């Protein structure tokens, strides 16, 4: 696991591909489009996502997202 402290992560091709995979796995629910991008960043980086929004992000755990 990698820790991010005050770092900007550029949303590149690998993140976009993972976001598309997660978005499709979430039945392309439009309200989860940006959440899929956030989840993809955490997944690609091997990070655990800390969130209070477990309802929306929980759909991505079946695809490998780890929540705190």
User: What's the number of domains?
Assistant: 1
| Biggest β-sheet description | 2 strands, parallel
What fraction, in percent, of the residue positions are helical?
Answer: 40-55%
Question: H/E series, N to C?
Answer: HHEHE
Strand order of the largest sheet: 1-2
Query: What global shape is seen?
Result: globular
Average pLDDT taken over every residue:
91
> How many β-strands, per DSSP?
2
The gyration radius over C-alpha positions equals 11 Å
Q: Give unreliable regions as ranges.
A: none
CA distance, first residue to last residue: 13 Å
Helix tally equals: 3
The SS-based structural class is mainly alpha
Work out the strand percent. Answer: 5-15%
How is this fold's topology laid out?
Elements: H1 13-25, H2 33-45, E1 48-49, H3 54-57, E2 66-67
Helix pairs in contact: 1-2
Describe it.
By secondary structure, this protein is mainly α. The chain has one domain. The protein is built from three helices and two strands; from the N terminus they run ααβαβ. It has helices spanning 13-25, 33-45, 54-57; strands at residues 48-49, 66-67. It has a two-stranded parallel sheet. Helix 1 (13-25) packs across helix 2 (33-45). The longest helix has 13 residues, at 13-25. The radius of gyration is 11 Å and the shape is globular. The two termini are 13 Å apart. The mean pLDDT is 91.
Short structural summary:
This protein is mainly alpha-helical and 68 residues long. 44% of the residues lie in helices and 6% in strands.
């Amino acid at each position: 696991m990698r820790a991010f402290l005050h770092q900007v992560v550029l949303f590149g091709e690998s993140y976009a591909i993972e976001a598309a995979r997660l978005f499709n796995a979430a039945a392309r629910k439009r309200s989860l489009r940006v959440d899929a991008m956030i989840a993809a960043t955490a997944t690609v980086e091997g990070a655990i996502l800390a969130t209070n929004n477990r309802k929306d992000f929980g759909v991505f755990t079946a695809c490998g997202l780890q929540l705190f």
